[in-house]
Amino acid sequence: MTNKYDAIIIGAGHNGLTNGAYLAKAGLNVLVLEKNAYIGGATVSRELYTDWKYSNCSYVCSLLRPEIIRDLELPRHGLQVVPYGGGVTFKENGDYFGNHADHERLLREVARHSKRDASAYERYEADVMKQTRLIRPFLMRTPPDPTSLKPRDLKELAVLAKSFGSMGEEGLADTMRFWTMSIGDFLDEYFESDVIKSHLAGSGIIGTALGVYSPGTAYVLLHHYMGDVDGSVGAWGFARGGMGSVADALSKSFQSFGGTIQCDAEVDQIIVKNGKAKGVALANGNELYADIVVSNLDPKRTFLKIMDEGDLPKDVVTKAKNFKIRGSSGKLNIALDGLPTFTGLPKDSPLCLGEKHFIDSLPRMERAYDDWKAGTWSKDPYVDMLIPTQIDPTMAPPGKHMMSVFVQYAPPKVNGEDWTAEDKAGFEKTVIDQISNYSPDFKDLILHCETRTPKDIEDEVGLTEGNIFMGELTFDQLLFNRPFPGYAQYRGPVKGMYMCSSGSHPGGGVMAAPGANAAREILMDLKLTNTVPGGYDDD
Amino acid sequence: MIPHDETMILETPFYSRCLAASEINLWEDWKGYRSPQAYTSVEQEYFAVRSNTGVFDISPMIKYRFTGPDAEAYLNRLVTRDISKLAVDRVAYTVWCDDNGQVMDDGTIFHLGENDYRLCAYARCLDWLMWSAEGFDVTIVDETADIAALAVQGPTSCSVFKNMGFTGIENLKPFGITRYPFEGSEVMISRTGFTGDLGYEIWVDPALAEIFWDKLFEAGKLWGIRAIGSAALDMLRTETGFLQAGVDFIPAEEAIRTGRSRSPFELGLGWLVSFDKPVFNGRKALLKEKKEGSRYAFVYLDVEGNKPAEHAFIYAGDKEVGTVTTAAWCPTAKTNVAFAQVDAKYGKVGQELVAEIYYERELKWTRVMAKCTVIEGAVFNPPRKRQTPAPDF
To answer: Which residues does A241 contact at the CB level (< 8 Å), separation at least 6?
Structure first.
């Protein structure tokens, strides 16, 4: 077996595999290394209970770029994304808000809670759509360096300026406010109903160590709205067979171009000689060589764990240390003996296909954040719960179900100490009790529960502090600032070293854009023909 | 019996169940029958077939029965395919042509028993069938209203049938026919369909239609069964490359303008023409066409970008060479596909053409010239469609 490759990619998550696929497609001999025995990183399906498949990290799909799905022929390699509609937020008083997929039906439901809000909803939708229209064309582009005078940067800056300029004076002001304001303040400008605000606010805090009234959370909502399923912007779906089928299809595509994947191969160190990346040293002592080394790890892990500080410019070490990547969420994956009933909702309601939440006001959500700030998990958490087996027959036996429960907030450490088994049990109980309040038969249906704290996610997947986005999605860490100013074009501080993770533009979620964008930059440096497709145009 | 003067539009034997399942009351007219365009959401119905099971009421489909000592010989003269090779309990897709070798329709022939066949068609053609029957000892009956039929399609469809008690259904091969006892009578099941997925069609006495529907949906509960309408079906057939009569070609007998009908070769259906047969309708004209060349080629196009090439003109360089008949973004294959009629010399697989696409955004129209590549065929073609025994999901 050779130990010399054209490119070595560290981490077989979806971005590493995407990056590898495009490099291999360009004719490079590419090796993707994975520390775990299985590929996927946080894009994974695992059978942790016999006959059940858990999407035990990421659990829904919308951001994955259609350009990449099509170009890498992921459907032919087995990927099938099935959209779900609907969603519910249960109210403490026994009522609920149903987020219907059908527009008119949704407006009728909003009107049930507030007639005025039903009218405001259309203004809200248009305003959010203006922001998605602005950001979406930049997902498949490398951010320009605003301090550079290189023709390409100037050209890209002009594109950026033109897009922002097309918003008009008022639109530009709205945009600047939107990118910096809190989701709570944003929603307060449209709605009066608590339950509607809380239902929508969830997207502003998921994966983020900020509260609904923290500045910057309005953008996080956009991050959850800017994806699409078949052109339906903001729609979400399930990957049939779980999120692991995304990684599986990517790996098959990568391998079809001649790429190699090696599991159980943890990288200990990126080898740098004379200011150039030369390969990697594995934890088992083996060394593998390549002039291109791409890290799909988050920026902290990349620069502070697998690189020697002496090989790096001081500013990178400082910036990596200051990089904001706080753990804020946990996960419960539950095998169910049957479909639970929810108070007030018919079992066959189409609303049941979507996500469920059990927190009905912004003040309650802010208190959940207060618990996190105080160093513990939320006692009344924001939960994003889905039962994909209502649509996907492949993840559990017929009549049985798999429940995915994303929980916010959960701290990386409890009161400054590592999570204990007791803490974990307490966290699990908090979540199960909250759901049980709205589903009397839920507890009795539980066959198995995998509970994951941020610490578990960090240990297994390798996401620092268990932060699902590989770095928070606030304006200071977005676009040409992601991961750090001066390093947003996927090139590391050492020649031949690159970054392709969600820690780079356009950020987290199972999007594959960072991996693809990084490949385009690498191929450009190698003066090879670009294999990465351009983005689709909404207009 | 079909009531002849009591109603403007007919109801299929499943109508009461379709009506109960319809949440949005969106109907259309299919050959005089009220047929659902969508029940709840086109998207959910489409995905039911790609991920679970979707049920489409195909009862209005035109159905003819052929019996008598010359039934086989008759059909072999009628259609382009060699029917003598079609074994009992097998189904064949075929076209039939007029004397000029122009496609009258496409459809399926079911070999039900010795000299016993059923033809399912898009267009009514009894008159043509009768003319063609001169000299043959064959009885032809229009049995459209005498049989209730459902398409039961999707990756869990086999599991649904197993759960319904149709033991061994997983061993039925594509285009095979089998029968099961049902409520003192019989249900016929064929592994056929219009979706390109694992799927079946069932054929049952109209008197048993409602009870069949009820049992089917009961059995399918755990397998995500859902009724689907024609809008979803249209997306499904496009993705899998099936032509739609009246959309992708004009049945020869309906064409008014000269030159608007097409031959099987011009529809990419040359594989259905069996010149080994000494005689069949249109043979002479088709032989001549084969020798001298066709006027048009039917092509599948992979269209760059995400704008469906609906009604687009197709160019080769600056020259307009054809038009699109069907186009859609395919939600499972994640490909922008189009079917087009182009001048015969432009049909080669791999050839690059350009589609002139117009689309509107908030009252502003935009034109794109999208690159297209001629591709082999269906963009959606999963292994489960062919696997025997059929998979559970």
So the answer is: A45, A53, A78, A80, A248, A392, A394, A395
**Beta-carbon separation of B332 and A391 below 8 A:** no
pLDDT of residue A79: 96
| Structure confidence at residue A477 (pLDDT) | 95
- Matching residue, tokens 């500080």: A309
Number of neighbouring beta carbons within 10 Å of residue A431 = 25
Residues 190-229 of A with CB under 8 A from B: 229
What residue type is assigned to position A530 of the chain? N
CA atoms of A487 and A477, how far apart (whole Å): 11
For residues B61 and A155, what is the distance between their CA atoms, to the nearest angstrom?
58
Tens of pLDDT, residues B201-249: 999 999 999 999 999 999 999 999 999 999 999 999 999 999 999 999 9
User: How many A×B Cβ pairs under 8 Å?
Assistant: 63
Q: Give pLDDT tens digits for B108-157.
A: 999 999 999 999 999 999 999 999 999 999 999 999 999 999 999 999 99
| pLDDT of the residue at A349 | 87
Q: Which residues of A touch B51 (CB under 8 A)?
A: 80, 82, 240, 391-393
Amino acid present at A21: A
Has residue B279 got a pLDDT over 60?
A: yes
Instruction: Give me the torsion for CA of B24, B28, B34, B38, rounded to 10°.
Output: -40
User: Which among B51, B329, B366 has the least Cβ separation from residue A391?
Assistant: B51
pLDDT tops 90 at residue A333: yes
As a whole number of angstroms, the distance between CA B361 and CA A538 comes to 9
Q: Which amino acid is at A514?
A: P
The answer to whether B33 touches B60, Cβ cutoff 8 Å, is yes
Chain A residues touching B236 at Cβ < 8 A: none
Query: What's the start-to-end Cα distance of chain A, in Å?
Result: 49
- Amino acid (1-letter code) at residue B243: L
Q: How far is residue B237's CA from residue B192's CA, in Å, rounded to a whole number?
A: 13
CA–CA separation, A42 and A332 (whole Å): 14
Q: How far apart are CA B250 and CA B259, in angstroms?
A: 10
Which pLDDT score is estimated for B1? Answer: 54
Q: Does B39 touch chain A (CB under 8 A)?
A: no
Sequence ranges of the domains in chain A = 7-43+63-81+241-324+471-525
Kindly determine whether residue A230 and residue B366, on different chains, have CB atoms separated by under 8 Å: no
Condensed to tens digits (0 to 9), the pLDDT of residues B155-204 reads 999 999 999 999 999 999 999 999 999 999 999 999 999 999 999 999 99
Closest CA to B224 of B279, B155, B168: B155
Tell me the domain boundaries of chain B. Answer: 15-59+147-228, 295-375
Superfamily grouping for domain A7-43+63-81+241-324+471-525: FAD/NAD(P)-binding domain (3.50.50.60)
* Interchain proximity B224–A101, CB inside 8 Å: no
Question: Is A43 in contact with A66 (CB distance < 8 Å)?
Answer: no
The pLDDT of residue A530 is: 97
Q: In terms of CATH architecture, what is B15-59+147-228?
A: 2-Layer Sandwich (3.30)
Burial label for A529, CB within 10 Å (0-12, 13-18, 19+), is exposed
Strand, helix or coil for residue B377 = coil
Residue A171 confidence (pLDDT) above 70: yes
Class of the CATH-defined domain B295-375: mainly beta
Long-range CB contacts for residues A129-132, cutoff 8 Å, separation at least 24 = A129/A233, A130/A167, A130/A171, A130/A174, A131/A175, A131/A178, A131/A222, A131/A225, A132/A222, A132/A225, A132/A226, A132/A233, A132/A234
Q: How does residue A86 score in pLDDT terms, banded at 50, 70 and 90?
A: confident
The pLDDT assigned to B389 comes to: 98
Q: How far apart are CA A304 and CA A297, in angstroms?
A: 11
3-state DSSP assignment of residue A375: coil
